[in-house]
Amino acid sequence: VTAPPPVPTLDDTPLMHSYAPFDVCFVRGSGSWLWDDDGNEYLDCLGGIACSAVGHAHPAVTAAVADQAGTLVQTSMLFWNRPVVDLARRLHEITGWGRMFFANSGAEANECAIKLVRRWAGDGRSTIVCADGGFHGRTLATLAATGQPTKWAGFEPLPAGFVHAPYGDLDAFAAAVDDTTAAVMVETIQGEAGIIPGDHAFLAGLRELCDDRGIALIFDEIQTGVGRTGTWWSFQGLGVEPDVFTSAKALGNGLPIGVCIAREAIADAFGPGAHGSTFGGQAVPAAAALATLDVLEAEGLVPQAAVKGETLAASLADHPCVTHVRGRGLMLAAVLERPVAAGVVTHGLAGGLVVNAPAPDAVRFVPPLTISPDEIAEAARRFHAALDAALADEDGGAP
Ligand SMILES: Cc1ncc(COP(=O)(O)O)c(C=O)c1O
To answer: Reading across the β-sheet that carries 162-165, which strands appear in turn?
Structure first.
C-alpha cells in the first residue's frame, strides 16, 4: 500500500491564494460523511457550504448525472434540451409561478435578477436597495450588492446603483427608496453574516413598501432555498412572496447550477438576446437538480428539515458557552458566549466534524437534509468537544 501524497499547500500549488484551505484533502463522501486521504472520517455539517441537500454521492443523483453525462452534456440554450425544460416545469410547480433563467452559480443567478429588474423598471430606475451585512456574491455587481465593505476593498470602482440600509430596519429601507429605485434585494436569513434571520414584520414590511412604491422585491434564497428551512423556499414558510428570487447551492446537490425565478410580468422584460450564459441551463446540472428534487420529495425531507432543525438546535444549545442557536430548519448557527468560533472549527476538524465560522462568535451548521437523528446527536457531541477544546486554548490550557 502506497502512502497518499502529502496534503497540498498554497506554496506548492499554482492556485491563487484567494482561499486558505485547511490542512485536509477530502477524497470521498457518502451521505453526511467525508473521508480524507488518510482514511479519517468526518461528519459533514457544512455540506460544501450548504450545497449537499441529499448527502454526498446520493445514488439517485449519481445515477442521473452519470446517465446524462453519458448521453448529452452541452448544446447551449440555442437549442432545447429535455432536462432543463423538465426542471423549469418542476420549479414552477414547486413555486406556483414564475419564469426561470438558469445560471452556473449563486452570483450569476443574482446578476440575472439585478439585470432583469433594471430592464423591467426602466425610466432611469436602476438602484437596488440592499442590506448591511448581506451577501450576494463575488462578481462586481453582486459584490456591490453585498453589504460588507471589507469585501469591497481594492476592487473599486464597483458598479454604481447599490445602496444599503440596516437589515431589519424597515424605516431605513423606506428612506433609502427613491425615484431611482428598481428593487429591494435581501436574504430572508443572512447566511454569510452569521445566520441572522429576518423577522416576519420586517420582510412583510418590505413587501408592502415595494407594493406601495411599484418596485420589485428580490429575495436571495441561494443559501436558504431547496428545502433547508422546512419549506421549498424560505419565503413560503414566512408567507411573504417576492417578485423575483434566486436559488443555487443545494439545487444541484453540489453540481454548479443557479436559477433566477421571476414573476411573468417582470420576466417578460427579457427578450431574446437580453441575457445569456454558455453553460447555463445545460443537461447535466439540470439532471442533478431534478434528481435532487425527486429525492427530497420522495423522502419527505423538506418538512423533516424543520423537525430535524429543532432537534439539532436543542442539542447544540446544551452547553454553558452556547448563548442561543439562531436560524431556521437545518440552517443554524450556535452563538457562543466568547469569540472562539474559529478555534471550534479547527478542533472540530481534528475531532471529525466539519463546520465553519461565519462570525467570530457563530458556528454554522448547514448539514445535508438527509442527516439522521443519530448523526445529529453525534454532531452535537463533537461540537461540544471542539468547543471545550477551543475554550481551553483561550484559557491557556487551564481546565
Ligand atoms: C445568500 C447568498 N447569495 C449569493 C451567494 C453566492 O453564491 P456563489 O458562491 O454560488 O456565487 C452566496 C454564497 O455563499 C450566498 O450565501
So the answer is: 99-103, 258-262, 244-247, 216-220, 181-187, 127-131, 162-165
Q: Atom 8 of ligand 1 has which residue's CA nearest to it?
A: 106
What does the pLDDT look like over 90-135, one tens digit per residue? 999 999 999 999 999 999 999 999 999 999 999 899 999 999 999 9
> Is 49 a residue whose pLDDT tops 90?
yes
Q: Hey, whose CA ends up nearest to atom 7 of ligand 1? A: 106
pLDDT exceeds 60 at position 398 = no
DSSP string, 288-309: HHHHHHHHHHHTTHHHHHHHHH
CA–CA separation, 191 and 234 (whole Å): 13
**H helices then E strands: how many in the chain?**
13, 17
Using an 8 Å Cβ cutoff, are 84 and 200 in contact? no
Q: Is the dihedral of CA 326, 44, 190, 330 positive or negative?
A: negative
* Whether residue 223 has its Cβ less than 6 Å from ligand 1: yes
Distance 25 CA to ligand 1 centre (A): 23
- 136 CB near ligand 1 (under 6 Å): yes
How would you list the strands of the sheet with 33-36, edge to edge?
A: 26-30, 33-36, 41-44, 353-354
Beta-strand pair 41-44/162-165: unpaired
Ligand 1 closest atom vs CA 108: 11
Please give the model's pTM, rounded to 2 decimal places: 0.97
Name the β-bridge partners of 103.
258
